[in-house]
Amino acid sequence: xxxxxxxxxxxxxxxxxxxxxxxxxxxxxxxxxxxxxxxxxxxxxxxxxxxxxxxxxxxxxxxxxxxxxxxxxxxxxxxxxxxxxxxxxxxxxxxxxxxxxxxxxxxxxxxxxxxxxxxxxxxxxxxxxxxxxxxxxxxxxxxxxxxxxxxxxxxxxxxxxxxxxxxxxxxxxxxxxxxxxxxxxxxxxxxxxxxxxxxxxxx
Length: 203
What we know:
The chain is α+β, with helices and mostly antiparallel strands. The radius of gyration is 20 Å and the shape is elongated.
């Protein structure tokens, strides 16, 4: 009996990892109970000290790996110092992961405005009043800020200048599938000019 039959080796049938990612995300949207577009975002200071947190990754046009945040937060400050990052999607229901690495660039103001105003009014207010990542004396202080801001802005909520959008431009994409006996299937795609170079990795 061949090893592939014994252990269930699988291949990916495309040379385009973005096409594969789109297909996996569509499947996750049907099987994941919450936020299939959630991913761990890793950033680092100029000195290389890392930090990681979960973000919701949005698609903006043909750009697949976009996220929005307070540029004065910890991740915003680290991206300003060191504009490179990594994402890891984990879909437990599918037993799959996707890792993405690359350079970070800011989205244009028009795209950021459009997304900001597509959010609920409460979410817009929350973004406007939060000094994200900085010390908060009490929950009551945050709620007072929300109430005060809501009374002062009864119409359209202005997007704060510090609330911005970022795109991770993928240079490396790894697709991971759980395998029996820890013999996982891993495929690494590395940017090569206008295309991609594909390799299978040891688990």
